[in-house]
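Quick start: what a row looks like.
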Amino acid sequence: MTNNISPVTLDNASSTTQLELEKTTPLSISQCTPAFTGYIEQYVAPSELAFSPLFTNATAIIEKYLKLPVPLLLVNSRYWLNAQQVLKEVIPNDLPVDYLLSYNQESLFGRASLNADDTLHLSQGLLNTFNNGALVLNISPLLVESNLWFKLKSVLQRGYLLASDAVNADKSKQALPDLQSQPINIKLILVANRAQLEELIQIDPEYTQISSLFCELASQVPVNQTSINTVIHYCQHLAAQLGLTPLNDKALQIILNALSIECQHQQQLLFDLEFIEQTIRYANLFTQNNSVTEDDLSAYFDEINEAQSLARKYSEQSVIEGQVNLQLTGEKIGQINGLSVVELLGYPCEFGEVFRISASDMIGDGEIIDVERKVELAGNIHAKSTHIVQGYLNHFFSHISAFPYSCNLVFEQSYQESDGDSASLAILLAVSSCYAKCAVKQDVFVTGSLDQHGNVLPIGGINQKIESVSRLFELGLLTDPVTIVMPKANMLNLTLNKYSLALIEEGKLLIHAINHCHQAFPILLNKSFEQIIKTINCRIELANKEEMEESSIGLFSRLKHSIFH
């Protein structure tokens, strides 16, 4: 699609053809949710329960680390249980190893105490107990008590313990023994996420003085038959441990959907063993016959969602009571419904909200005056996106020496700082509507970012945003079909809940996925982008003509006045 066509030269026939080319069709249910049925039907139980095959790169690093004289391995993993299970599979059975989620100075280095005869006694810590073996430590205690990290670092560097490392050794009046003749040859494996590793760097920028290796365990795995088989096998393994009958296909479908929803990706699964275990254990509380069904799992997820919905319900209540002003029917010039995601500090989940963007024009120079940025209620990314929209739109009026209008842009009833570029497409449509004096449909909701060529880019939280529109049906604020415009690149991220899918099936929720901003104009304005540009040009020409006529009349009046007076 050519972006620099002069809109003045387009006739009605070419505009109609362009309008037809820019039409899109709503997404089907199958495009809005992951498909696991085929994988479940082809499930074959592995010979043994093993997770390391899902992380071949990390497994190779761990195996080589155990064979090299490298004392430290850093395992980047969000989930302790995942790392523990993979390490247990890779570390040989004949190597002494212990896994510690919690520990302190005494458990690692021992304690100094006095015997009855006033002689000094040093009790051994785990560094002695697992000498010539391995210790797998969750990094959290080292970050809370950084002195522990520096003591461990010193041991790995010098290769032996100091008696003064033991608890209470500094209080002893007895001479401390020299432990240099007792070398410590231990493998230390630290499990940490990226934020914790960054904190370790802040505590000790020179932590790399210790020879070390690094590997990562992804928190999500690609959807394929191997990963599906592993997850299903683990689910059935847990069911057997809990004395439950094997989960049926529908129950497994719900668990796999939940793992996909956590990733917000149709081709990725969250790989969190604790999440899976908690899901099955909690769902077991709803059953009376030792058989967890799809209804039990649905009841669990409904109960969890309800327990985390208080903030969302306050938001919805404000819409019901009219405290948040939304127009959901009809048409309006310069006004559009956008979609956002609300993130609250300390809150375990995010939720979507519908908000209104309005634009009003004035005499100016083509500037989009971003009120949110002016009053410091928006961040740098938001400001960048507004400038991109302004540059893209002004590009089509480069043949005009001076664009005569500016636009005041407001995110209505926004009282807290926000940031992001997901409203770029909505801003472009609102501003274009304002300049062209062409009304926008108010039963359409828009989200999407833009580049300076008009391509619609992916955004975050697409499922929460779409589900915020679905809830308007639940609240009784919508009954007729509505339309959502979203980036086509986000189609892989669609993992909608069952209520939203039901609305799609009923034809109440029409989702259009687009890859260029021109495709949004026929949906919201019933005109092609070229027609809108042509309308704006006509308005500018009319304004210039009126200005010239006023100037001519003014000049004639001055001449007449000077002649006759």
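That is the whole record. The chain has three domains: 7-22+325-539, 56-216, 220-307. The first strand starts at residue 72 and ends at 76.
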